[in-house]
Amino acid sequence: MWSDIWNRWKRRSLRSFVSLFLVGVILSVAIAACGGNSENAATTNNPGASPVAANKQDVELTLVSFAVTKAAHDAIIPKFAQKWKQEQNQNVTFKQSYGGSGSQARAVIDGLEADIVHLALALDVNRIEKAGLIEPGWEKELPNNGIVSKSVAALITREGNPKNIKTWEDLAKDGVQVITADPKTSGIARWNFLAFWNAAIQSGGGEEKALDFVTQIYTKNVPLLTKDAREATDAFFKQGQGDVLVNYENEIILAQQKGEKVNYVIPAVNISIDNPIAVVDKNVDKHGTREVAQAFVEYLFTPEAQAEFAKVGFRPVDETATQTKELAAKYPKVKTLGSVVDYGGWDAVQKKFFADGAIFDQIQAQKR
Question: Alpha-carbon distance 308 to 58, whole Å?
């Protein structure tokens, strides 16, 4: 009897051992298969990549900018993407949005999840900061106080310049009609107003003379105020209104590159139209894109990127980008170049000139 019990116990133990052995084999194969699939997936996405680099997922950035930067960014983005791929073994793509600077700032505040903003004036970036999306001190984190592209104001005249318009002072002469946008709605129009004011100040007349000068222009010589720069351009070229259009120099150069014939003057006294860039802190932290967003912004200050800005009409912040004769010829030197900093910065300028009831509103009230 005991021998029968012993034999039955040995058979059950053998079966249990075999079952456990088979379970172990199956689990080992499954684990190996999972590990093998993970490695193969990484290798497929990034052939020849190191295990660390191979695990990097593709990343997408959202760039929100003002309209006339599109040509520059279209040339710069592929260069950066290639550089990032070579250095980080990671694919980076861009969603891009272009429009009026003020409208773009409002869109970001209202929920457009930009990782990076490149706008026409620091006032618009400051609005995004005040909305809690960009950390204070953003301009100190980059070269040149965050100014990544520049332009100056240009006076576009009719063919042959029949009114002989060469300086800002000519805009206040009787019988000269000036086309510009409304500073209450347009970023470039704020720059235009500041260019008028700066011209009077630089002549040594003081603020009283500056006020008389801009009042003469806006109350006597501006037949209409358009919503934005694009409408002002259409009013001048398509509708034939006005004797002179005030616009960005870079817009003129880009138009010439497209085959358009434009007569224009760059006044010797001018204003530096400075375009800032910033990382939108709240959004990059949400998206996990801070590293690549910061790298792209820093890349825009390199000579390679600055040369692309120069090719499409911007006066680059890196002067070495314009040292070739071909590029330097596009940018006549401005004898006296003012800055918004000369007038206290954009917050002070906005309060003094463009806030409700401020100087511009007072000027317009005289026109009614």
Answer: 26
DSSP lists the bridge partners of residue 320 as none
Q: Is 97 exposed, middle or buried (0-12, 13-18, 19+ CB in 10 A)?
A: middle
Give the torsion through C-alpha atoms of 229, 234, 240, 246, to 10 deg: 20
Answer whether 156's CB lies under 8 Å from 264's CB. yes
Torsion of CA 228, 231, 235, 238, to 10 degrees: 150
* pLDDT tens-digit map of 303-334: 999 999 998 899 878 766 666 666 667 788 89
- Compute how many other C-beta atoms are within 10 angstroms of the C-beta atom of residue 39: 12
Query: Does the global pTM surpass 0.85?
Result: no
Q: Are residues 133 and 108 in contact, defined by beta-carbon separation less than 8 angstroms? A: yes
**Predicted local confidence at residue 74, as pLDDT:** 97
Task: Please say whether the beta carbons of 313 and 249 come within 8 A.
Answer: yes
Q: In what helix (H) or strand (E) does residue 115 lie, and over which residues does it extend?
A: none
Single out the residue of 152, 213, 162 nearest to residue 222, CA to CA. Answer: 213
61 and 292 Cβ atoms separated by less than 8 Å: yes
Q: Tell me which residue of 275, 289, 299 sits closest to 77, measured CA to CA.
A: 299
Instruction: Locate 163 and state its tokens.
Output: 């009114």
**The predicted structure's pLDDT at residue 220:** 96
- Mapping DSSP to helix (H, G, I), strand (E, B) and coil, where does residue 72 land? helix
pLDDT for the residue numbered 294: 97
- Cβ(81)–Cβ(296) below 8 Å: no
pLDDT of residue 13: 43
pLDDT score of 49: 39
Q: Which residue has the tokens 């694009």?
A: 230
Contact 274, 121 (CB under 8 A): yes
Low-confidence ranges of the chain (pLDDT < 70): 1-55, 319-328, 368
Is 272 in a helix, a strand, or coil? coil
Confidence at residue 341, expressed as pLDDT on a 0 to 100 scale: 93
The single-letter DSSP state of residue 334 is: P
Long-range contacts of 315-324 (CB under 8 A, 24+ apart): 315/149, 315/150, 315/151, 315/152, 315/249, 315/250, 316/149, 316/150, 317/143, 317/144, 317/147, 317/148, 317/149, 317/150
